[in-house]
Amino acid sequence: MTDIHRLTRNLHRRNDSRIVLCVSDGLGGLPMQPGGKTELETARTPNMDALARRGVTGLSVPVLPGIAPGSGPGHLGLFGYDPLKYEIGRGVLEGLGIDFDLGSNDVAIRGNFCTVDEDGIITDRRAGRINSDIGARLCEKLDTIQIPDVEVFVRHVKEYRLVVVFRAPGLGGDVDDTDPQQTGVAPIPPHGNDDASTKTAGICRYFLDRAAEILKEDAPANLLTMRGIAKKPPIPTFEEVYGTRAAAIAVYPMYRGLARLVGMDVLDAGNTLTDQMTCLERHWDEYDFFFVHFKYTDSTGEDGNFDGKVQRIEDLDSAIPAMAALNPSVFILTGDHSTPAKMKSHSAHAVPTLLVADNCRYDGSESFGESVCRTGELGQFESKYLMLHALAHAGRLDKYGA
Fold it and tell me: Where are the beta strands (DSSP E) in 286-400?
């Protein structure tokens, strides 16, 4: 297997170029009826279409053909990290996303408050999407749990989401999720897949038993499930492998965590797309590479809201001029995976990708959408190679060989 980072370490060079990677989460879609248009093809996107006429298009495969990726693997691929080599637990990403300093003795867990009935059966996996004030108060209660020989940290993330960190020597991070991903059944008991992780699973069981006692009067958030139980792995940084000063402009904690994991500076992105564009302009002269994340094309897709996803794509299109006005050397627009409203979930479909630079080999694209991207210059490629395209078009790679 080609070691991409060994190659880029040897070939990267610094210059004054600027690269913008704009990730519209879950961008790829499907028509609701055979022969129809996808969400992206339905949306009015004059600014994206104008860029397509100046650039090249293609379809990126986040992991492998046929594999529907999570957001973690999807983004790592876009950042040029082989998602099959670097498996990152959701708990680690959530912890880093709220600026929790994870150490070598820490196991991080993504928690979801949920609703269970008197028989312990899950009736709502997200506790009615409780607001953040309630979630924060419940996390304060859980943060009082004490476990012998283990430090326990419980931190609120947003709404029904939280992070639990256990700190102790000898813990493993290979523990199965307790979230069954459906209602009408009980949470799955924690199970470790090696000796160290079996120790962690025991701690999880103890914590969940205490949590059930503490939360029993707090319906709809009267229990929690655990996901992405993991330790932080060693991973090379963006500057090490690409020679770039990189910054992330993302609102949601998980994506901020992904960026921090690979050594990007995580900027104060505010709460809105307008805030993100203001942040980008404010810091333009400080960095070489900017990761700009837009969440809502994914959430509307998962809700099965075709028209809502169309509207969110149009919202993002309205922000394109602000990014283009900064005249980046390379501008890339893509997604970390496809989330068709028709399927209400992440899918294995390849993702529309657009790259704009003055040295593009223009491919005649007149618009930006799945059908056009299918015949574009970039072809269909694994997303882990996207950073090579970005660096090459930015003049940041030396020639390979004599």
Answer: 289-294, 330-334, 351-357, 379-382
